[in-house]
Design a protein that fits this description.
Elements (H helix, E strand, L loop, with lengths): L1 E6 L6 E8 L14 E4 L6 E8 L4 E9 L5 E9 L2 E9 L2 E7 L4 H11 L5 E3 L2
Parallel strand pairs: 8-9
Antiparallel strand pairs: 1-2, 1-4, 2-5, 3-4, 5-6, 6-7, 7-8
Length: 125
């Protein structure tokens, strides 16, 4: 998995990614220090990037991109034991299922509520 936290030189474009461990009860852990990782080149000039190898468990991968106009788009992936079980795309404050099993929605919902990501509507059909 690519963990990229970078922004453009002018600061008009920002990329933020998170890997959240949701396998252990109600607590949410986003520390990446315990994972095997090595550095890589970020998408934008300022910032850092790491390639992370995930151990077995339940994770939610969040990738959010803010553009020139301040609009945020991105994607949410639910990863269980190395397999992507659910893919959602985030655009215009709405989540839409791209592929996967919608029964994993509760894991994504826990991440959204803990990080206070604004959300108007969810489409899991």
């Amino acid at each position: 998995m690519l963990l990229d936290n970078s922004k453009s030189v002018t600061g008009k474009h920002v990329l933020r990614t998170l890997i959240v461990n949701v396998s252990s009860g109600p607590a949410i852990d986003s520390r990446v220090d315990s994972f095997q990782s090595h550095p890589c080149k970020p998408l934008y000039k300022k910032g850092e990037c790491r390639v992370v190898k995930l151990p077995n468990g339940k994770y939610v991968y969040v990738r959010l991109l803010r553009n020139l106009r301040g609009h945020v788009s991105g994607e949410f992936w639910v990863i269980v034991n190395g397999e992507v079980k659910l893919k959602l795309k985030y655009r215009k404050l709405k989540l839409k299922r791209v592929e996967g099993d919608p029964s994993h929605w509760d894991l994504v919902n826990r991440v959204i509520s803990s990080y206070k990501i604004p959300l108007k509507k969810v489409n899991l059909n």
